[in-house]
Write a structure and sequence with these properties.
Blueprint: E1 3-7, H1 12-28, E2 33-38, H2 44-50, E3 54-57, H3 69-92, E4 96-99, H4 105-115, E5 119-123, H5 130-135, E6 142-144, E7 154-156, H6 163-166, H7 176-185, E8 194-198, H8 205-212, H9 215-220, E9 224-228, E10 243-246, H10 252-258, E11 261-264, H11 268-277, E12 281-283, H12 292-303, E13 306-308, H13 316-327, H14 330-343, H15 348-362
Helix pairs in contact: 1-15, 3-4, 7-10, 11-14, 12-14
Length: 366
């Protein structure tokens, strides 16, 4: 029996690949012990117990970026977090640590190194985060989602994805009958071409307003829309028949099955899911932060499987001149689907698992 410590969290981009790996470990090694390390504030506090895994938490400690009272207290609090993780590793007999970035990962990497336990890093984004960049200095086992990610020792494994998503890559999984049933699930016409609009779990105000403002025109073109509004922006249903608005979607497998084209932010998981499944997309990278979403989208855009559009371009004029014609062009969508699929992969979970097992096999203590 192997004891795994999976560390990471904060956002869905860290939690979902962690859970995907946990699910595969549980399936392949029914006697394995899986412990997840996170914080009380991140999404993992809800999602990990819901999935049936044990969650241990440490203090949320962002790396200080400027002089402050917090920066002065940080070193002692960080050392305490490392001690707590070292105690957890010893108490549970952890044999390998796998980190996905986020606040829990940096102490986990340091604790693993001090306890002589191998650790594996998975970097989801094309621009790596600080915790993973620092952690990569101490391990040869570094996995990345996107080729060319600038992090030491990177091996491209792709993104670990949920089984309900990877299963859509099976022959017939998104065939006509299942597509019709998926559309009916959302109250849509089973035969009508469908646009999926989503800004992720928290929503995206620019996408919401930019697309919903042209709801009548999109529907008048003969298409229909499934718009996942998200949690942090106000709900503004345009009230147009054939334009379905939902605040959240807990069946993204059905949403992906239903759609012919997607408009979405360019988070690493979303880009990986869309490209792996061969879904043509308009990717609208988040305009703030370190620009990682634009880099995440670069591969599939270069392959011709997606368009890259900025927040500012999401105007009624763009919808009328670009989006609506694209949605109605079956041949172009089919070509984009093939090119998206060529830029993606659905076996990221298996490839990361193989790397973890390699780390275990190479460790002389095992």
């Amino acid at each position: 029996m192997t004891v795994y410590l999976l560390a990471g969290g904060g956002t869905a981009g860290h939690v979902n690949p962690l859970l995907a790996l946990a699910d595969l470990i549980a399936a392949r090694e029914p006697d394995a012990e899986i412990v997840v390390l996170g914080t009380r504030e991140g999404l993992e506090a809800r999602l990990v117990p819901e999935r049936g895994y044990e969650l241990q938490t440490i203090e949320r400690l962002p790396f200080p970026r400027r002089p402050s009272a917090y920066a002065l207290r940080f070193p002692s609090r960080y050392r305490r977090a490392i001690r707590e993780v070292r105690g957890l590793i010893r108490a549970r007999g952890v044999e390998v640590v796998v980190g996905f970035g986020g606040y829990a990962s940096a102490p986990a990497y340091r604790a693993a190194a001090r306890e002589g336990v191998p650790y594996v890093i998975h970097e989801a984004n094309a621009r790596p985060g600080l915790a993973n960049r620092l952690g990569a200095r101490g391990t040869p086992y570094v996995a990345v989602t996107f080729a060319g990610t600038p992090i030491r020792g990177a091996r491209t494994t792709g993104m670990p994805l949920r089984p309900e998503i990877t299963g859509l890559g099976a022959p017939g999984a998104r065939g006509p009958e299942r597509r019709a049933a998926a559309r009916e699930h959302f109250g849509l016409d089973p035969e009508r071409r469908t646009l999926l609009v989503t800004g992720g779990s928290l929503g995206a105000r620019a996408i919401n307003r930019g697309i919903s403002g042209s709801a009548a025109e999109i529907v008048a073109s003969g298409a229909q829309v499934l718009h996942v509004w998200g949690g942090l922006t106000e709900l503004e249903d345009p009230g147009v028949p054939g334009y379905a608005v939902i605040p959240y979607c807990d069946r993204m497998d059905l949403a992906f099955t239903a759609c012919d084209l997607a408009v979405s932010r360019a988070g690493s998981t979303t880009v990986s899911e869309l490209s792996g499944l061969g879904i043509p997309a308009v990717l609208v990278p988040y305009g703030h932060g370190n620009g990682e979403q634009r880099l995440n989208a670069a591969g599939v855009v270069a392959a011709g499987g997606a368009l890259l559009v900025s927040d500012a371009e999401l105007t009624p004029g763009w919808v009328g001149s670009v989006l609506i014609p694209l949605l109605g062009d079956e041949a172009r969508l089919a070509g984009m689907a093939d090119r998206a699929r060529s830029a993606g992969a659905l076996d990221g979970t298996e490839r990361l698992y193989d790397l973890v097992r390699e780390a275990l096999a190479a460790d002389p203590v095992q």
